[in-house]
Automatic annotation (TrEMBL):
<dbReference type="InterPro" id="IPR052044">
    <property type="entry name" value="PKS_Associated_Protein"/>
</dbReference>
<protein>
    <submittedName>
        <fullName>Cupin domain-containing protein</fullName>
    </submittedName>
</protein>
<feature type="domain" description="Cupin type-2">
    <location>
        <begin position="39"/>
        <end position="96"/>
    </location>
</feature>
<dbReference type="InterPro" id="IPR011051">
    <property type="entry name" value="RmlC_Cupin_sf"/>
</dbReference>
<dbReference type="InterPro" id="IPR013096">
    <property type="entry name" value="Cupin_2"/>
</dbReference>
<dbReference type="InterPro" id="IPR014710">
    <property type="entry name" value="RmlC-like_jellyroll"/>
</dbReference>
<dbReference type="Pfam" id="PF07883">
    <property type="entry name" value="Cupin_2"/>
</dbReference>
Length: 122
């Protein structure tokens, strides 16, 4: 990771597929990731860490077991550690995630949607 200025929207333009987080920057032991979201993900939790979503464009629904949280552009929501959730986007969404390095996107459930964080090529 370089110390260069990074542009989140330019980085998002290089991502071809949804649900594949890419590291934009790191600070201390945390990663700031850019990701495109579309469709429904998997129900999961992160037993050891909170997870922050910042929607840049589109509308994202974070399904929780007791309610749905709807986020639009510039909305931030923190999912507390251990809380089961399932992100869902009926249309294209661009977002930033802030979470500890090494956090797996599918949390405690794994499966074929699990992606290791990728490095941006541009």
């Amino acid at each position: 990771m370089t110390n260069d200025v990074r542009n989140a929207l330019a980085a998002l333009a290089t991502i071809a597929e949804p649900w594949q987080p890419h590291r934009l920057a790191s600070i201390n032991d945390y990663d700031l990731k850019v990701v495109k979201l579309e469709g429904e993900f998997v129900w999961h939790s992160h037993p050891e860490t909170d997870e922050l979503f910042l929607v840049l464009s589109g509308e994202l629904t974070i399904q929780l077991r007791d309610r749905d949280v709807v986020l639009g552009p510039n909305d931030v929501f923190v999912i507390p550690k251990g809380v089961e959730h399932c992100p869902k986007a009926d249309g294209p969404v661009q977002a930033l995630l802030f979470e500890p390095q090494g956090t797996v996107n599918t949390g405690d459930v794994g499966g074929d949607r699990t992606q290791q964080v990728r490095e941006l090529t541009a």
